[in-house]
Design goal:
By secondary structure, the protein is α+β, with helices and mostly antiparallel strands. Helix content is about 35%, strand content about 25%.
């Protein structure tokens, strides 16, 4: 127990701009209803998404104008740096540490590109040492809150005593497309928001919760379920209508397999902490994991307050679950492009 990986602290943050769901619905109707004949059939998604508001990298007026790669990536760099600094600084402060104490950084993001990576751009401001190990990860999408947490925990496990900083940043709203007259674009407009989270992980005696096991499941022949298509304008969302029924059918066996490889079963899990991709996905998750309807209450609360922020969202759920008090064993679960299911089990520290 003494040398197992522990979560020392967790901090979350959002950009300053707020877009209510009513504003998003009204603006989308103004922008799309006369150009996209199927918009009227899709408009109900704004009411049924279970979202009251979300936070955005730019004010609502910015999205009414066309933007290309340069605009989008300049906005990404500006806001992502700010969120990285805020969440990482707060996570370190909560753990009683400084930037110079960090030995390794795992940074995940799939909604923007920065080279040099964000951690390098902020190294001096954060006070990171020159021998710090940096691991930027791109492309894991919504699953990355769990997958990235798992990667960071394995670095901590393999380097006993080393302090690992894990940062998840997504600015999903910057992928909004005026030119995409598609079902996927409208649904994404109704669902996605922006946010960031940071965790401090270290193998040792102290911590809020123990990282017990990690695992993933890659489903064959599922590349078209979720992802990006990339063109001169920017990212364009790929989001299959089959996602909720796929999750309902396939997630349970995948999670069972991950748990079994770690000597566990679903019966050993007292609480699931899930990425809330949307209300339909949450309903599918409860069915897939044999949970009573409404069990994923923290997930629905986060979705209502922030929307689907992709990778950091599950960490916002974890923050609420920690404040409420975790049971003996919990399992964080998320799905994302690949198509992939990722799972991390957590044990309460006595």
């Amino acid at each position: 127990m003494s040398d197992t990986v522990k979560l020392l602290s967790l901090a979350v943050a959002t950009p300053e701009h707020v877009i209510t769901q009513k504003e998003a619905a009204a603006t989308s109707a103004r922008l799309f209803s006369s150009r996209f004949k199927d918009f009227s059939h899709l408009a109900s998604v704004f009411d049924n998404a279970g979202i009251r508001k979300r936070y955005a990298a730019r004010p609502l007026e910015w999205f009414i104008e066309p933007h290309g790669w340069q605009d989008r990536m300049e906005a990404y760099g500006d806001v992502a740096r700010s969120l990285f600094f805020e969440t990482a600084t707060n996570a370190l402060k909560k753990a009683g540490l400084r930037g110079s104490d960090v030995d390794c950084i795992v940074t995940i993001s799939s909604t923007g590109i920065a080279t040099p990576s964000l951690d390098a751009q902020l190294a001096q401001k954060m006070g990171f040492r020159s021998d710090i190990e940096r691991v930027p990860v791109f492309g894991l999408g919504c699953a990355a809150g769990v997958s990235g947490f798992a990667i960071a925990s394995r670095f901590a496990r393999d380097r006993p005593g080393a302090t690992v900083l894990f940062v998840a940043i997504e600015l999903c709203t910057l992928a909004f497309r005026l030119d995409e007259l598609t079902r996927a674009n409208i649904i994404a407009t109704a669902l996605f928001g922006d946010g960031a989270a940071a965790c401090i992980l270290r193998a040792g005696r102290e911590g809020k919760v123990e990282v017990e096991s990690t695992g993933e499941h890659l489903f064959p022949d599922t590349l078209g379920i979720m992802g990006w298509k990339i063109d001169d304008t920017g990212f364009g969302v790929v989001l299959a209508q089959s996602l909720p029924p796929f999750a309902e059918t396939e997630l349970g066996p995948a999670v069972d397999g991950i748990l079994a490889r770690n000597g566990l079963s679903r019966a050993d899990i007292d609480r699931f902490i899930c990425h809330p991709g949307g209300t339909r996905v949450l309903t599918a998750l409860e069915s897939a994991l044999s949970l009573e309807a409404g069990t994923l209450d923290h997930e629905r609360a986060v979705l209502a307050e922030y929307g689907n922020m992709s990778s950091p969202t599950v960490l916002f759920v974890l923050e609420r679950a920690l404040k409420a008090g975790l049971p003996e064993r919990s399992a964080m679960v998320a799905m994302g492009p690949g198509f992939t299911a990722s799972c991390v089990t957590l044990k309460r520290v006595a």
